[in-house]
Design brief:
globular; alpha+beta
């Protein structure tokens, strides 16, 4: 059995920012904190944060690009670059980009990683929309 070291993974504001029934700010920790951090990194365009202009990922520069192998290869590169630079709690095992079979304006980014503290393997799929700029909240918080 494997126990995650919360002291290493940390605790922070939950991605679904808000308060609980007692008025406390929602916090997240452990492996969920890492997954939310990955979503924040991929969802933030470089230059978007004034005090950290290098933070984020160039993934949003691909909005309105054609869903072809070149665009998917760029997406893979951008994700690998951003996660290697900004999420030090993981060891990136691989990034694969697959077109969505039902929606030609979307592809799925499959991210395989290990948590450094315990070498536990995780997999995450990040849907990226090429045209609409929508976020699938069901897959994020389901």
């Amino acid at each position: 059995m494997c126990f995650l070291s919360d002291s290493f993974l940390g605790t922070g504001f939950a991605l679904d920012f808000g308060t609980d029934s007692r008025g406390n700010i929602n916090l997240t920790g452990g492996k969920r904190s890492v997954e939310e951090s990955i979503r924040i990194i991929l969802g933030t365009s470089r230059g978007e944060r004034v005090m950290r202009p290098d933070f984020g990922c160039d993934l949003n520069s691909l909005v309105f690009a054609p869903n072809n192998s070149r665009t998917r290869a760029l997406a893979q590169y951008y994700v690998e670059e951003a996660l290697s630079k900004w999420e030090h709690r993981i060891i990136l095992q691989g990034v694969k980009v697959h077109p969505d079979e039902e929606d030609e304006t979307r592809f799925h980014i499959e991210i395989d990683y290990l948590l450094r503290s315990v070498n536990t393997y995780f997999n995450m799929v990040y849907p990226f929309y090429l045209e609409r700029g929508e976020i699938d909240t069901q897959s994020q918080f389901g």
